Amino acid sequence: MITIKRTTKETDITIKLAVNVAKDKQQIGIETGLPFFDHMLNQLASHASWSLCIKMKADLEVDDHHGIEDVAICLGQALFKAWKKQSNKRYGQRLLPMDESLTQCAVDLCGRAYCVTNLPFSQSQLGGINTEMWDHFFYTLAINAQMCLHINNQYFKNNHHLIEGAFKALAYALKEALMPASSITTTKGVL
After folding, report:
1. Residue 65: inside a domain, yes or no?
2. Cα torsion 132, 39, 142, 170: sign
3. Is 155 part of any domain?
4. What is the pTM (predicted TM-score) of this model?
5. Domain annotation covers residue 182
6. What is the DSSP string of 61-83?
7. In a domain, 188, yes or no
8. Using one digit for the tens of pLDDT, what is the confidence trace for 34-86?
C-alpha cells in the first residue's frame, strides 16, 4: 500500500493506493466532501482493481478547485510510485461505451508526462462541480503520475455519461497498463 499525504493552507489530503488487487480484497473508502467526485473516484478504483482510500479536507467554501487539484496531485504521485516499483505492460487502452456516450482512453506509463483530453461538456456544472475541473484533474493526474494520457470522447448526449465514461475508460486502460509485463516494454533499457 502506497501512502501519500499533502497538507497545505487550502487542503489536507491522505491517499492510500494498492493496484492489481483481487475483487474480493479491494478496499475503497473515499471522502472528499464532494459526493459526485467521490462517485467518479469510486468508479476509477472499482474498475481498475485498486484498493483506494482518500480523505480530503479542503476549502470547499471557496470552490472545488483546490481539493480536486490536490487529490489529482496525490493520486498521481501514488500511481507513479506504483508503476515504477514493478515491471508492467506500460501501455493500456479502452474504448468504452456508456449508453449514448463513447469514449476512448489510452495511457503510456513511460515517465514522459503528457495529457490530451477532449471532453466537450454541454453544461458548466455537473454534480456541483465546474466541468472545467475534469480536464484539469486528468492533466494534473497525468503530470504527477508521469504518464502519457489521452482521453477522447467521440460523442455523447448526457454529461453524466460523458464524465463517468471517461473515468471508467481510464480505469480499464490503467488496469491493462499495470498488468505484469511478460516481455520488454522499451528498447531504451529504462523508462
Report:
1. yes
2. negative
3. yes
4. 0.93
5. no
6. TT-SHHHHHHHHHHHHHHHHHHH
7. no
8. 999 999 999 999 999 999 999 999 999 999 999 999 999 999 999 999 999 88
